[in-house]
Amino acid sequence: MEPKAPSPDTVPDGTxxxxxxxxxxxxxPTLSGQGRTHPDGVDRATRRRVIAASFxxxxxxxxxxxxxxxxxxxxxxxxxxESDRQxxxxxxxxxxxxxxxxxxxxxxxxxxxxxRVGRRVALSWSILLMSLATFCIALIPGYATIGFWAPVLLLxxxxxxxxxxxxxxxxxxxxxxxxAPPHRRGIYAAIVPASTATGLLMGSLxxxxxxxxxxxxxxxxWGWRIPFLLAAPMGLIGRYIRTKLEDTPVFKEMAAEDEAxxxxxxxxxxxxWKVLILASGAVLLNAVGFYLLxxxxxxxxxxxxxxxPTLSNLSxxxxxxxxxxxxxxxxxxxxxxxxxxxxxxxxxLFMLLTVPLFMVLDTxxxxxxxxxxxxxxxxxTLNDGTLPSFLAExxxxxVRYSGFAVCFNLSNALFGGTxxxxxxxxxxxxxxxxxxxWYLVTAALVSLIAVALAKxxxxxxxEHD
Length: 465
Known about the structure:
mainly alpha; Growth Hormone, Chain: A; 25 helices; 73% helix; 0% strand; globular; disordered N terminus
């Protein structure tokens, strides 16, 4: 049977970006011969369901993960013996960082599962595991009750959280990119960091509410457990939504040819190791910037700038609101200008503006702090809104989930999860409140070099092999 005629859905330059598969398995032409992409024919209703499911599922996963950071100061009181406050904070953030060390292993596991069995299966199980671990944290007695075992149990649950989260961001990004029209992959993939920020926003709102209405004793006694208890029902809802979706057209096509089973994630390190190294470097700004500016910042404002916890969380909440809007605009921008141009601009701007903006934070003036957080969040969206589509496009279909998951989680394990700890440590070691800013500048420089050496991928078909 002859191939069907190409779809009228074309990229802005007038070329036909994706092949059309006939019932006999024939394919239409591809752009520049760069591998096969998913067949045309995904209706708008299906794409809307994919967007909604990806948003809700990712929101649930990252709300669960984020509340730990926003309640770090209270958790330090509950799970560690009374000692120097900075030591307790360092211990709390050390647990935050340790949970990230499992993420490269988790990334390999979930990526391997997603590339062999399906994106939907991996995403459905990861959200269930995350929600269970988060719910269990709410049930752990404090140090005053069970002593040494309190932080040990907390560590175990944090490791499970880290293992689960390692498959979420990469899987949701690959899922959306593979469903998206070729000329709109940037805005589709930007849904992932937008939903992540929405999860953080909800965590920030709940933390601000708890700090505002409860006394310190009430908060440390039982109040901090409330957001962790919400994990169970939200996780079940997220899993239910995901199980109602079909897997991506490009994965089903590959599985029908039995190619998925012949593509273990181990191929990633044999054939695509150069791409993996550059992609890991490109993630560095996201890893440090995201956790420094959107997770650690309330602690920095409270402990270093001496802003009240209520104002610190309020400021971060406003910054997250603007971040969500900016990040979707960045996704559109990357579809027009290209991934590399936007990512390089983000790195350059961070290198130039981070230290001056942190100097303004140290003034302690709330309105100025608010403006700085909004500005830093806007700069971060230039990176975060473009990175998901950039990473997904760097790897072919057969190792896309694995490649994204491994590089993303490796950088986050080494530099993202350790960002709050490093910020606290660098301030204590150097005596300078600007130490976190210089750390962020260094991350931006590394990302700049990696992105500059990587290939441009926007408006090109997704490679199959």
